[in-house]
């Protein structure tokens, strides 16, 4: 038996892991014993990763479409033939429509440097990731206030004295280190407040739990800001030194008293005031989590901004136990990775989605993939004809798959790179099978926390099927498309390129899978912490938003209650599944085979629905079948389901037909996104529910 230190790949968090290998096969995967926050254990999904390896229900060879798009008729091809075809199609589209006609989308994360450099090399500005359906609103909220992004601060959960989770279910929407750190803080006497539309594992551990009316979080937060300011409970020294336009905020929240919010949210005014008091007592070691999956409402961007106002007023920005600033290798006297993306010049042409150009307040980095799809459909601002869909399943992850298929039908060519079947791969012209994370290496990633580190995924065993690693596929394409710089023959050559100048060598990763670039966690003092805004301060009235013609302090608008007989569709995670790609996992699917519909007991009684009954949930012509879970612990206006079910792909026999697809009920959802924050509005949909016959 031997150990290979690697990185879990069962979700996007990528926890440090150890694969135990016997006779060249991985037999077990556990958490890295060397990473303190991991404590040697992965989550259930991580532990089930081995089931992926021998799963015959994943694409095993490159496939080329022979029937109509989406019909599911394929022929197997060699890698040479498939890569030749992909290169030829990309070239043909670029010859006809120009370089910028090439679109890319992926799932973001620490290993995208390779992909971004490929797109730069190809001369197209249209690199996108999934984030308009995830964290764009919170990213733009951070950019607007601080001038830096959401990941430039750390959530110092371990040292926090009071954590507030709002639209966050940390104990089920798992990041192993975060979960461990939160539990450590609670063990040491820290307080937890949870604000949700239903009870969760997180609320079960909470000191305060507020079950609020769906979509009223902005009102709740404005009332907390009001209570902090009017009650003189805020950190005056911090505000004086670091906050520009505090008076504008104080004026703005004047009418938004806890009494006012009580009527909106269904939470008593006293409990809002009491919460403000508790937070002030724990300040600055307070984290009001600004959110992660915040592509939900018309005003989700304002919710994120207002969560940051509270952290600002409590002085927790830059504070230990609050939201301290990340450090870079430079802060520790070291040098970071050499970037592949710097191999090529940034394409000068404007992005098809307008990010950073037509819409200057929108971060051009990952753009807005849903808006790029509009360009595919309309040819505006220019034709987008070739699409590389890499580790992304938009037909599951963006709303209204039928509409998306109509949009994507305007493409000349689409290729999916994936390790599992997905609706989007099924709709492509070519499917390139990626090796599972246990069978492939990654490029080296850099994590800039309190103590920065470099980390890498090692190959724990050879591929079971005819699949390849990301870097091998990119190298194959690069060779064919005139980018010799990316046509690495060996992964060590790629790693050595990245490590140049860092003083770190490839062999140093074997012992732990990561190399730390600092002696100890570094808390930079607020004085060193330069806000990257024009004024160098936290800007309540944002110059960045003004440039895009957007207001900073937007009035609260009460969300519509569902029309009679309808419910607001809400969704989220559970501990044993990742998005849409684990429903067919042999182990995880057996443990939790289908999602269920949470519905309030009073409403269920009106509909004659009992727990365990099958229901039909419908909207805009789509009908989904799902089992009911009747409970008092959800707001009566909402129904809730875990995302990622309702698969209907023939090769996925275990997941086929089980549960409901929330995204299919979001008919018209491709047109709903926040023009200020960039996030989609996935919870602005009402559904009808009835007992299935
Ligand atoms: N097990 C597991 N863990 C994961 C993932 C996974 O797929 N599976 N995915 C990862 C990813 S990509 C992300 S983005 C994160 C997401 O992490 P989270 O955002 O924490 O997870 P969710 O479950 O999507 O949503 C959290 C909660 O928001 C609640 N909610 C819905 N509407 C409202 C509302 O109007 N107000 C309030 N206050 N609450 C509301 C839901 O009931 C849910 O409990 O999880 C990450 N971790
Ligand atoms: N209706 C609705 N829509 C949602 C959500 C929701 O809760 N409800 N959640 C939103 C959120 S928070 C997010 S983050 C997105 C997620 O959306 P996606 O990013 O699309 O989700 P994943 O399932 O993580 O990955 C997509 C595909 O990539 C493949 N894959 C997974 N890992 C890898 C890998 O390492 N490499 C490669 N090449 N392929 C891989 C999977 O097999 C899967 O087919 O969806 C968003 N959309
Ligand atoms: S949170 Fe779980 S599935 Fe995600 S990387 Fe960590 S162990 Fe793997
Ligand atoms: Mo996400």
Note down, in words, how this protein is organized.
By secondary structure, the chain is an alpha/beta fold. Helices cover 28% and strands 17% of the residues. The strands form 6 sheets. A 7-stranded mixed sheet has the order 5-4-15-14-13-6-7. A 6-stranded mixed sheet has the order 21-23-22-25-20-24. Helix 11 (258-265) crosses helix 12 (269-282). The longest helix is centred in the N-terminal third of the chain and has 19 residues, at 79-97. It binds ligand MGD (2 copies), iron/sulfur cluster and molybdenum atom (MO). One ligand MGD binds next to strand 9 and strand 20.
Q: Which residue ranges are poorly predicted, with pLDDT under 50 across at least 5 consecutive positions?
A: none
How far apart, in Å, are the first and last alpha carbons?
55 Å
Indicate the overall shape: globular
Overall average pLDDT: 97
């Amino acid at each position: 038996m031997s150990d290979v230190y690697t990185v879990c790949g069962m979700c996007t968090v990528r926890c440090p892991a150890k694969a135990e290998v016997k006779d060249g096969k991985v037999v077990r995967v556990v958490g890295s014993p060397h990473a303190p926050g991991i404590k040697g254990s992965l989550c259930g999904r991580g532990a089930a990763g081995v089931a992926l390896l021998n799963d015959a229900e994943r694409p095993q060879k490159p496939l080329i479409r022979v029937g109509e798009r989406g019909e599911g008729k394929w022929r197997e091809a060699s890698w040479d033939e498939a890569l030749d075809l992909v290169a030829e199609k990309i070239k043909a589209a670029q010859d006809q429509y120009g370089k910028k006609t090439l679109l890319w989308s992926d799932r973001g994360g620490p290993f995208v440097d390779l992909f971004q450099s490929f797109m730069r090399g190809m001369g197209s500005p249209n690199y996108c990731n999934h984030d308009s359906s995830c964290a764009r609103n919170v990213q733009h909220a951070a950019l607007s206030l601080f001038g830096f992004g959401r990941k430039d601060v750390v959530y110092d959960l371990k040292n926090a004295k009071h954590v507030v989770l709002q639209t966050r279910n940390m104990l089920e929407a798992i990041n192993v280190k975060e979960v461990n750190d939160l539990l450590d803080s609670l063990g040491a006497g820290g307080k937890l407040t949870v604000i949700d539309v239903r009870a969760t594992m997180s609320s079960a551990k909470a000191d305060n739990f507020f079950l609020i009316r769906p979509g009223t979080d902005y009102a709740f937060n404005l009332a907390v800001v009001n209570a902090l300011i009017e009650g003189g409970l805020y950190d005056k020294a911090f505000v004086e030194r670091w906050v520009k336009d505090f008076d504008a905020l104080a004026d703005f929240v004047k009418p938004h008293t806890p009494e006012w919010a009580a009527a909106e949210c269904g939470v008593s005014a006293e409990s809002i005031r009491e919460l403000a008091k508790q937070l002030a007592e724990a300040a600055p070691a307070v984290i009001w989590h600004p959110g992660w999956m915040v592509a939900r409402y018309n005003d989700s961007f304002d919710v994120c901004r207002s969560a940051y106002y509270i952290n600002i007023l409590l002085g927790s920005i830059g504070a230990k136990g609050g939201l301290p600033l990340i450090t870079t290798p430079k802060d520790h006297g070291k040098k970071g990775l050499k970037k592949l993306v710097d191999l090529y010049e940034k394409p000068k042409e404007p992005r098809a989605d307008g990010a950073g150009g037509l819409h200057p307040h929108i971060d051009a980095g990952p753009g807005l993939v849903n808006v790029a799809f509009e360009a595919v459909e309309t040819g505006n601002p220019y034709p987008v004809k070739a699409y590389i869909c890499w580790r992304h399943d938009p037909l599951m992850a963006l709303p209204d798959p039928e509409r998306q298929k109509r949009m994507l039908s305007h493409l000349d060519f689409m290729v999916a790179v994936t390790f599992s079947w997905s609706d989007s791969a099924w709709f492509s012209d070519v499917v390139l099978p990626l090796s599972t994370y246990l069978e492939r290496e990654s490029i080296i990633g850099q994590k800039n926390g309190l103590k920065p580190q470099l980390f890498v995924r090692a190959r724990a065993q050879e591929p079971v099927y005819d699949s390849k690693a990301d870097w091998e596929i990119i190298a194959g394409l690069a060779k064919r498309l005139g980018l010799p710089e990316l046509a690495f023959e060996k992964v060590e050559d790629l790693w050595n390129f990245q490590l140049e100048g860092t003083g770190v060598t490839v062999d140093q990763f074997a012992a732990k899978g990561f190399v730390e670039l600092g002696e100890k966690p570094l808390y930079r003092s607020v004085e060193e912490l330069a806000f990257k805004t024009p004024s160098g301060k936290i800007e309540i009235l944002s110059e960045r938003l003004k440039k895009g013609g957007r207001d900073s302090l937007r009035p609260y608008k009460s969300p519509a209650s569902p029309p009679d007989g309808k419910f607001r569709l809400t969704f989220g995670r559970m501990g044993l599944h990742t998005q849409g790609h684990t429903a067919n996992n042999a182990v995880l699917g057996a443990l939790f085979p289908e999602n269920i519909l949470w519905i309030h007991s009073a409403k269920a009684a009106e509909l004659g629905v009992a727990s365990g009954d099958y229901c039909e949930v419908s909207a805009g012509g789509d009908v989904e079948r799902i089992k009911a879970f009747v409970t008092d612990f959800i707001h009566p206006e909402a129904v809730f389901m875990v995302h990622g079910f309702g698969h209907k792909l023939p090769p996925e026999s275990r997941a086929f037909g089980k549960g409901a697809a929330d995204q299919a009920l979001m008919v018209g959802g491709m047109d709903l996104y926040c023009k200020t924050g960039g996030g989609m509005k996935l919870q602005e949909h009402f559904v009808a529910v009835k007992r299935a016959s």
